[in-house]
Amino acid sequence: MQEELAPAKINLALAITGRRVDGYHNIDTVMHSITLSDSVFFSPADELIFRCNDLALPLGAGNLAWEAAQLVRRYVGQRRGVAIQLNKRIPAGSGLGGGSSDAAAVLRGLNRFWQLGLTDAELLWLAGRLGSDVPFCVFGGCARGREKGDVLTPLPELPETNLVIVMPPLSVASAQAYAQYDTTSFAGTVDVTGVVAALGQRPEMVWRRLGNDFLALLAPLEPKLQELSKFLRDLRYPYSLTGSGAAFFVAVPTAREAHFVMRQIEREQRGWRSYQVKTRGGYQ
């Protein structure tokens, strides 16, 4: 049996820069991989078998990991079998890129399991056909994403940093979040270029520049996001929303302080889930 990790990502900065003629949106974002991961297992089978430990997720169309397997089979012109077991840990509707990372793990995993010899360029092309975040998730690390988020520029990775992920009892669909942008005259102020420049300097400079346009867009409409944002602000550690939400991340200097933050979250008893993680590097 072969295992492939599917790491989550956070957005150190995310600015919405406009609506596209194809109905999607242009963004400017800086993404970084973290250690919170799903796992994808591959084992021999006579046909394509797909299983998942999360019974709420579809096992066919609508599941990006399954769609990735079908795409690879079509691309290589073969109908060989494989049993894929997806074990989820990344919460759905969190903005942590779990579905995209699962799809990327299937692309990497099948390339290895079936010894296909697909190049990096081929993997990225296939990833782009699955979703805007999937190309980043193929190799992870740290990168700036422009246009739909899929035009990538590699950036220096952060040194290993302690983080706490906090998820309120809420999930946010990306379509819902972008629809809110379309109905307002929103003009964001996120300094993506400042975050890019800070990555080549000291990590503390990155944390001072965190920002996400979706927080300003969605918090006034979602009391649970507003409530959690205020709680985190009062802790006085750098924090931000990731993706279109609903998860936040908090940057702390030490593991001990991460434990402290998690204890404060538990004491609130508001249904918030927390995960102690770290930044991680990519696959290259």
UniProtKB/TrEMBL annotation:
<dbReference type="GO" id="GO:0019288">
    <property type="term" value="P:isopentenyl diphosphate biosynthetic process, methylerythritol 4-phosphate pathway"/>
</dbReference>
<comment type="function">
    <text>Catalyzes the phosphorylation of the position 2 hydroxy group of 4-diphosphocytidyl-2C-methyl-D-erythritol.</text>
</comment>
<dbReference type="InterPro" id="IPR014721">
    <property type="entry name" value="Ribsml_uS5_D2-typ_fold_subgr"/>
</dbReference>
<protein>
    <recommendedName>
        <fullName>4-diphosphocytidyl-2-C-methyl-D-erythritol kinase</fullName>
        <ecNumber>2.7.1.148</ecNumber>
    </recommendedName>
</protein>
<keyword id="KW-0414">Isoprene biosynthesis</keyword>
<keyword id="KW-0808">Transferase</keyword>
<dbReference type="Pfam" id="PF00288">
    <property type="entry name" value="GHMP_kinases_N"/>
</dbReference>
<comment type="similarity">
    <text>Belongs to the GHMP kinase family. IspE subfamily.</text>
</comment>
<keyword id="KW-0547">Nucleotide-binding</keyword>
<feature type="domain" description="GHMP kinase N-terminal">
    <location>
        <begin position="63"/>
        <end position="141"/>
    </location>
</feature>
<dbReference type="InterPro" id="IPR020568">
    <property type="entry name" value="Ribosomal_Su5_D2-typ_SF"/>
</dbReference>
<keyword id="KW-0418">Kinase</keyword>
<feature type="active site">
    <location>
        <position position="9"/>
    </location>
</feature>
<feature type="active site">
    <location>
        <position position="133"/>
    </location>
</feature>
<dbReference type="InterPro" id="IPR036554">
    <property type="entry name" value="GHMP_kinase_C_sf"/>
</dbReference>
<keyword id="KW-0067">ATP-binding</keyword>
<dbReference type="GO" id="GO:0005524">
    <property type="term" value="F:ATP binding"/>
</dbReference>
<feature type="binding site">
    <location>
        <begin position="91"/>
        <end position="101"/>
    </location>
    <ligand>
        <name>ATP</name>
    </ligand>
</feature>
<comment type="pathway">
    <text>Isoprenoid biosynthesis; isopentenyl diphosphate biosynthesis via DXP pathway; isopentenyl diphosphate from 1-deoxy-D-xylulose 5-phosphate: step 3/6.</text>
</comment>
<dbReference type="InterPro" id="IPR004424">
    <property type="entry name" value="IspE"/>
</dbReference>
<dbReference type="GO" id="GO:0016114">
    <property type="term" value="P:terpenoid biosynthetic process"/>
</dbReference>
<dbReference type="InterPro" id="IPR006204">
    <property type="entry name" value="GHMP_kinase_N_dom"/>
</dbReference>
<dbReference type="GO" id="GO:0050515">
    <property type="term" value="F:4-(cytidine 5'-diphospho)-2-C-methyl-D-erythritol kinase activity"/>
</dbReference>
